Amino acid sequence: MNMLRQAFVLLFFASVLGFGVNSFHPNAIPLIGEYRELTEGSEPIVPPSASAGDPPFIAINEAKLDHEAGSSLFIDARDPSEFECGTIPGSINMPFEYLPEDSLEQYMDSVLSGAAKEQGLIVFCSGEECDVSLHLARNLQAFGYTGVKIFFGGAREWENFELEIERRVDCAE
After folding, report:
1. SS3 123
2. What confidence tens digit (pLDDT) does each residue in 9-49 have?
């Protein structure tokens, strides 16, 4: 019982010390998160890892309009199993984690079926916790694709807005 009491006292003082240091630190972590509302969707989600020269980020409203117009090709950068479980309808899968290093440009051209370099391409993955869409979009841009955009809200935001999801297999959530 004495060890349990010591553990609680230690936990208490560690918590007080942690909150105290955090409150005075210049890069303090907010105690209550500032999360983006999913009710509007007019502003794109831009990750902290974004940098100048990256393809533009688009909000769900723009992604939905492009999808409805059929003006862009949607590219799911996730693992094939995630793609099969649910993706934006009509998307193609180009899993970033499995891209061949030696013939990357030829692979991209092949998967895109010879699409013009200026073709609209919207790259996405799972959502805000997934940055493979950013890396894939950077690679596409590096190989001369000029119509690349990033929908960083991804499949999760698409589904949260109750838009249609294409499921090729039934996966348990």
Report:
1. strand
2. 888 888 888 777 777 776 667 766 554 444 466 789 999 99
The residue assigned the tokens 């841009």 is 141
Task: For residue 165, give both structure tokens.
Answer: 């999801």
For the chain, the structural domain boundaries read: 1-34, 60-160
What is the assigned CATH class of domain 60-160?
A: alpha beta
Helix/strand/coil (H/E/C) assignment for every residue in 26-56: CCCCCCCCCCCCCCCCCCCCCCCCCCCCCCC
Burial annotation 74-91 (CB, 10 A radius, 16+ → b, else e): bbbbbbeebbbbbbbeeb
The predicted-structure confidence for 38-93, as pLDDT tens digits, reads as follows 446 678 999 999 999 999 999 999 999 999 999 999 999 999 999 999 999 999 99
- Whole-model pTM: value is 0.75
- Say if residues 169 and 84 touch (Cβ distance below 8 Å): yes
